[in-house]
């Protein structure tokens, strides 16, 4: 199949969260299965062109110029440059805020996908794989193009997070020439506003989301963010496919970012990683106590209210915390205060730091992720792979990937109620097992042995693509 994959972030060039990791690894896994892949993404000012060897292609299309990264894994990665829209330090915004012209930025990106592919001689695309609200309008564009050549291309839209929808005032319909014909309840109208994500949901041929449990949850009022009705109406076209882990990029036996290599059979390196992490974050955990890691966007979605509430109790139980995060300012302030109150016990780094993220997954004993909701979650998968059992809330992809520890079974600890008591109860169960190094290591090793490879996910996406294309076959036969 010929697949055009569009995402607003692609690691290692640009990344604010899991979408960047997925947009890097999934196309590569699909290419390994013999498909032809072109990935398109904006060229932000923060992308290090020299480091990544980007070269201008000398192709101008629709107000953008195209740049390409060297293809090392069979995937073409092409960057859309428009200095006025994308030549800035942030991806979606700076200092915790959003850029005021994000609608124009990502409408531009969405509309340029098919013309850019044509200009790159990547024509006759079978599948346009879109991701999150930033690409939603591309589904509308494609639907409008039906009947022309684009009518043979099918679209698959992946929801990575329903909490971010790209909702803007309806004045945009004129400003961005979206066409009032699409501003209807079964189009992109949403409570008298324009909703880019909804455009993706209603105009795509097939919808996927990043875990089976989340696929069910978003069809309910509680987690539907106002779009549960739309999703229920398309439930026969909605599939949950779990994300994977890029085994090369996330491997404690060969990770250049961590202090010492280790694996399930050679465990000594993990203790060195722990020591190095404690030095780096100035942690002084009392002997025999647990270091808990957190690597996250600071957003309410991730359960930081619970963590802040539970902090004094966790510290009282002897737990130290290694925290890396950035995002909502009030969380940054609250954690800075907590760290000042508990020197040596709460090690905090505010910012986005890929290397430190790896060192926390490797150096912590257990990993905390008490999300309010979690479409899939990659952090808990990385923690499993680095032998740091996760403590998570039973929601979305966390419920699908972590199994409660018991005698000889399980990989981590789960709790249901979204409150700090439930979190502390789960931490207590973890401390119980942690008291026995043998039992803890056995638990960690079971986690390391889990196989969340992209190969499995890529096969599931392939089946989804076939399904989306199946409709085309039916149409062609009829006409
Ligand atoms: P989400 O996409 O909702 O943020 P995921 O768990 O799917 O959650 O993915 C988060 C990704 O972003 C992981 O690769 C994680 O290591 C990374 N990450 C999150 N916050 C930071 C940070 N402050 N510094 C470095 N990496 C981070
Ligand atoms: C989103 C979700 C996260 C998921 C990631 C990649 O940011 O919040 O759960 O793992 O996308 O799909």
Task: Give the topology, please.
Elements: E1 2-6, H1 18-32, E2 36-42, H2 49-52, E3 55-61, E4 64-69, E5 75-81, H3 83-86, H4 102-119, E6 127-131, H5 136-145, E7 154-159, E8 167-169, H6 172-175, E9 189-190, E10 193-195, H7 196-203, E11 206-209, H8 212-217, H9 228-233, E12 238-240, H10 268-280, E13 291-298, H11 304-316, E14 320-327, H12 329-341, E15 346-350, H13 354-363, E16 366-369, H14 379-385, E17 390-393, H15 396-401, E18 413-415, H16 420-434, H17 437-449, H18 454-478
Parallel strand pairs: 1-2, 1-6, 2-5, 6-7, 7-11, 11-12, 13-14, 13-16, 14-15, 16-17, 17-18
Antiparallel strand pairs: 3-4, 4-5, 8-10, 9-10
Helix pairs in contact: 1-18, 4-5, 5-7, 10-13, 11-12, 11-16
The structure holds adenosine-5'-diphosphate (ADP) and alpha-D-glucopyranose.
Alpha-D-glucopyranose binds next to helix 1.
Compact overview of the structure:
This protein has helices spanning 18-32, 49-52, 83-86, 102-119, 136-145, 172-175, 196-203, 212-217, 228-233, 268-280, 304-316, 329-341, 354-363, 379-385, 396-401, 420-434, 437-449, 454-478; strands at residues 2-6, 36-42, 55-61, 64-69, 75-81, 127-131, 154-159, 167-169, 189-190, 193-195, 206-209, 238-240, 291-298, 320-327, 346-350, 366-369, 390-393, 413-415. The protein is of the alpha/beta class and 479 residues long.
